[in-house]
Design brief:
The chain has 235 residues and is an alpha/beta fold. It contains 8 helices and 10 strands. Helices cover 40% and strands 29% of the residues. The relative contact order is 0.19.
């Protein structure tokens, strides 16, 4: 009888754990979240794993193209996506945990076009509205933010690394990206700092972990508390 009760309780705990376990989605986008020798590395997964340890979970993280990861994280229960900028348009789509870290986002062009821009950020944004193509991540915060800033010349792209190389070849006039990503890709591709320059700043943006709206609020609260606890320990 006691043995049966033990097995029943074990099975119940297993079922409860699996019911409440969170599945995470992210994209392959260095240096924030990316695959290296088939292992997911970067600041995003590092933070999520630290939070998972705090809440007592072994996180399942799936790497997908951004648009699909976003869709799954919206539609499925007990799912979340990282690292994601919290924007007004996205606000109702998720329950938010963060901020995890902050990035600086700007517009970059090659040395061939640098002479078109001066020292005034607003004037440089206006000039950027007049060029042929501004490469932005499809479905990304940059596309949303630049659309809000009245850009009509956006060219949504799926592969950030490829778009950087196309910028160098003159296919794109401007690339929207963060300073951390640009430093990473220029080092990876062994491109001199004199070849590409930031010509306008879009802003500083906090990155978040976002849970689907169908995920129970108590789960989201648990992860937010874990983040606050980690931040308090690091001070």
């Amino acid at each position: 009888m006691i043995k049966r009760l033990f097995y029943a309780l074990t099975f119940l705990i297993f079922m409860i754990t699996n019911v409440w376990a969170v599945e995470f989605y992210t994209e392959d986008f260095p240096p924030y979240n990316y695959l290296k020798n088939d292992e997911l590395v970067g600041i995003g997964p590092k933070i999520v794993r630290a939070l998972a340890k705090e809440v007592g979970e072994d996180p399942k993280i799936t790497v997908l193209p951004w648009v699909r990861a976003y869709k799954y994280a919206q539609e499925k229960q007990n799912t979340a996506i990282f690292s994601i900028v919290r924007t007004p348009k996205r606000e109702p789509d998720f329950q938010w945990v963060g901020p995890l870290y902050t990035v600086r986002v700007g517009l970059y062009t090659t040395s061939n076009n640098k002479h078109l821009y001066g020292n005034d950020n607003e004037a440089n944004l206006e000039q950027a509205r007049k060029v042929g193509d501004v490469a932005v991540q499809m479905g990304g915060a940059g596309e949303e933010l630049l659309t809000t800033l009245k850009f009509k010349n956006l060219n949504p792209i799926l592969d950030a690394d490829k778009s950087f190389l196309l910028l160098l070849r003159g296919r794109y006039d401007i690339l929207e990206a963060s300073d951390v990503y640009m430093a990473y890709i220029m080092e990876e591709e062994q491109v001199s700092e004199t070849m590409v320059s930031e010509v306008a700043v879009i802003g500083q943006y906090d990155m978040y972990l976002a849970f689907s709206n169908s995920t129970p609020a108590e789960i989201v609260d648990k992860w937010q508390q874990a983040l606050e606890h980690l931040m308090a320990k690091s001070e």
